[in-house]
Amino acid sequence: MKLATNFALPRHRAAPTFAGVIWSTVLALFVTLVWLLIDTSTIRRDFPELRDRLTQLEQRTVPNKNVQLPATAEASALRQRVAAVNLRVLTRGRSLTAILSRLETLLPEQAYLVSFQRRVQEGEMLVMAEAESAEPLTAFLLNVEKDTWFSEVLLTRQASQTVTGRKAVQFELRLKEAP
Prior knowledge:
This protein is an alpha+beta fold. It folds into 2 domains: 11-62; 96-177, Gyrase A, domain 2, CATH 3.30.1360. It contains 4 helices and 4 strands; from the N terminus they run αααββαββ. It has helices at residues 11-65, 72-89, 96-106, 134-146; strands at residues 112-119, 124-131, 150-163, 166-177.
């Protein structure tokens, strides 16, 4: 016995599904077309107003085009001045706030900073600390010497003075930033 089978659907059964897909596609295209037409009409309606705003903006910028630029000699002099200012402002190494916070952690509670000067070009700092006795300042000096942020620590001056009836000791340190 011989059987002949075909697993494909008969054409008349697939026709409604095929027609449904085609009509869905046509409906989606029609909705898209209507949406594009409405959007185009909205844009065309707003077009004159947008053109007026554009001309107003162009009129506002016209006076700025009349600004005279400096002559070449003046421009080069200005460039040199800006370069000189940039060289002075140029900071190398760590930021000032980072250095001050580091010194604050190294400074004992009984001592405090009196003055701080920084020479950025040389990488040097001049720090003056004060305390009621020399022991906290000595501890501060040892802490700074051990710290890795500073490559050179010099005690440049030690002074004792009486200020408003209290005795104070000052250490002036010259610090060099480590590379």
